[in-house]
User: What shape does this take?
Amino acid sequence: MIDLKELSREDLMRLLDVYARNWLAHDGSWFLAAEEKLGMDAAIDLDRESWRRFAGVEARRIMKSFEIPDGGGLQALARALAYRLYAMINEQTLNWTGEGALEFRMVECRVQSTRRRKSLPDFPCKSVGIVEFTEFARAVDPRIRTECLSCPPDRTVGYCCAWRFTLDEN
Assistant: This one.
């Protein structure tokens, strides 16, 4: 058994990267197995339900671990998004708009990059992403509203997907 306390910062960072990549590889392997057995539509349905259950759990664990307050609005969401496993392995940006909204862009997505490298079409993840990002944001603060700006199968240029988060004050 490895004693994490004995690892250097460099080794800990490398281990985090391995864990994040392994998590994503497992997610992809699970999806491919479901697709092979049940077809693409059923696999996407299962993926959506999996993210419906997982996204809120992920958000709450991040919030607890990094002392992000419940109901902390868009500032809390920005912090929580930065701690997701995706943030370790995908290039992403967060920007505040003039209207006080928070826009998130997945600039480089390992899933889509892998598919493009293999000459496969983009994975049509929009319906899954809507559930994933909505549930994650809702767990941070139920007042947050999620809007998909663009996500495959939508055509995107310069990024893989984009989301806008606003706070419903009513």
